[in-house]
Write a structure and sequence with these properties.
215 residues, mainly alpha
């Protein structure tokens, strides 16, 4: 099957719109919780941007928007690279995987919260990974790509643990060192790191060995 450039642009635009809506809606919803949490508006905003889920849905939105609207610009060219889009596909896949296997159901959500929650953790991850699979050219990835892909998750983990130690607030319960202790957190992080590494290698293998599009 040969994919027409116009169809790719439509797909990119649709996913970008969904991702932007999900992030903006979640930002609105979390600002409404300041009275319940007791956090200041500034701390609530910092907490919002400290979620791996939010950062990676933002990456999806920015990646597709810049690649679509200004592909020849500095950022458009960067986010159009197959290695960059593959890294984002890995991150957003892990977002969906960890949430649906480990975190789903911990907090009960309804109404708009439920819609946004599923957009962030199911719809955007599934759509972007499908986009990556369909439109990334065969054989453009190399096994060594896995190593730079891990920089961002490692940096995020270090940031989260340091900030959590200082503020007492952790984005996710499985890295809550104050409740679990650092030994348990290290074990949890090992499993997450293994997931990143394993899925990353799987993505590279899929790209290297998937069938060529028909002519």
């Amino acid at each position: 099957m040969v994919y027409h450039p116009a169809s790719k642009k439509i797909v990119m635009g649709a996913i970008a719109i969904i991702a932007w809506f999900a992030v903006i809606a979640q930002f609105y919803l979390i600002l409404q919780t300041t009275t319940q949490t007791g956090f200041s508006t500034s701390k609530t905003i910092i907490n919002f941007f400290s979620y791996f889920t939010i950062l990676n849905n933002l990456l999806v939105a920015v990646c597709l928007t810049s690649s679509l609207s200004s592909p020849s610009s500095k950022w458009g060219s960067f986010f159009s690279k197959a290695t960059v889009q593959s890294a984002i596909a890995l991150y957003i896949f892990i977002v969906g995987l960890v949430y649906n296997l480990v975190l789903r159901g911990i907090v009960s959500v309804t109404g708009l919260d439920w819609v946004v929650d599923n957009l962030l953790h199911v719809v955007v991850p599934v759509l972007f990974v499908l986009y990556w699979f369909i439109y990334t050219a065969r054989g453009v990835l190399q096994w060594k790509n896995i190593f730079p892909w891990l920089f961002f998750p490692v940096f995020y983990l270090i940031y989260s643990l340091i900030r959590g130690t200082v503020t007492g607030w952790y984005a996710y319960p499985f890295i809550h060192a104050a409740n679990l202790g650092y030994r348990k957190v290290v074990i949890n992080c090992f499993f997450v790191a293994f997931a990143f590494f394993g899925v990353g290698l799987l993505f590279i293998m899929i790209n290297r060995y998937k069938k060529k599009p028909g002519r």
